[in-house]
Amino acid sequence: MRFKESLILGIAVMQRLLNDFTTLFPNVLVLIIAVNISTVLFYFIFKKLFNAATGFVAALLFATSAWPYLYILQGAHPPLVLMNCLVAIFFLQYGRLRKFFSFLSGLFLGFMIFSSPTSPIYLPYYMAFAIYHFIIPFKKFNLKTTLLHLVFVLLGSILILLYFTLPDPVTYIKTFIDFLAFSQKGNDFILWKKALVEYFPIPEGFRGGGWAWIIKYFFFITPIMFITYLVSLVYLAKKSVKRPWIFAIILLSISTPVCVEIVKVAQFGRNYFSWIIGIILGIAIAVYTLKEEWPAWSPRKQKIIAFSLASIFAGHLLFNGFIFFNDILPSRMANTHIYDWLMKNDIHRIYTYKNHARNKNVIMFLRNPKETGDLKFGGIQTIAQVTEGYILVPPITGKTIWNSCMEKDFNDDPVLTALYQSGEFKKYVVARFPTLSSSPVWTQEQEVCTYRDLMLGQISKEDRQKGFVWILDGKKIHEQWLPKYLTFLKMHQTSINEKNFPAQ
Fold this sequence. Notes:
By secondary structure, this protein is mainly alpha-helical. It is built from 22 helices and five strands.
């Protein structure tokens, strides 16, 4: 958990407040709070930087993006590091008023650094705001005052540094540097090269799809906002001819992908999350510039621009709402939905495979510690063993983030395999549930999986279908499918010992 101490601290505090030490809820609630605070901070930071309308646009774009909520449900650190960065910037904006605000800014800068191994990628945004508020206003610039504020920022950051690294800060920082060095050379492509060469060639020092992957990923995860951002950059580039400061903003807004590609950390979704600041910054400045020019336009042009902006936001809202409620949320809540379905249908005993590779992802976490309903499992080796009752079949795809997309599909049960390939599988399904394995969105949160998906196109619609969890009718399979299967084997002169299928 190197440089994620802020998240651990936040979870620990929330666990005590909720008296919940057994579920993921305290972790999730910390991140929900972080996203809500970030939404408010986007408004106030951009309001002070430009105006209230620009602040409203920035906050609205962030709040209606599905991307932050993905990491809330994952229990991952990106929303917290973003919040700490924005809080640090917020206090920085008021740092000239009181030195205590500069100290608070440094304090949250320290929390930011200890929120994520990728926290250095957020530093260009913080430094840019520092330059804007303390150095650029030359009429108010005072070297002594600026240095004094800098000292207070450093004091706040050093306090957090010591809190998390004592009694041996030097050793801690050294081990983190070693960890970063290993991360650059020891990505999953390199670590699992022998297993992955079966699916695609892996050159020496291979890391992923580079800039091509970045473009594809952002067109996938937030297409409307990303296209709007690219259009905004073109618009701002034209305006920068007369306003050089706009060009500096353009460079700042693309600092995340540039820094990540320089450092060469692993390529998957959350390592690029800091770009949401740059993307929103680019769009917000374009809106601010448009607002400045608004009075000079004809009423017809104003209506066209207003309608275009409203359409863009409507598209953004619809897209993000769709992927969240149809993919991100239900696939992450699979275990809860399975459990609720079983209890609703008064099913307290269900059969499942004894040695399925995905048991550790599905079966082990099917019962929430807070639930009181009784649920027992019957272990089987093949669906042919069940004569009465229901069978839970975990995902059979080998292309899942649960195994870095480098296993073969589950085929330990020839009866299930034959049933699935027969085209009659759906006849025996009483319920099915999307999981992380069936989700195209969650797939992008593992570097090998996202590369095989976006760059190579090796994860098909059929692979995603195999990523669902199914509940099968065991009695119906025994009475209708098993006789067909045995007849098929006899027709192909394949021997089978029916004693291998005792009911358990």
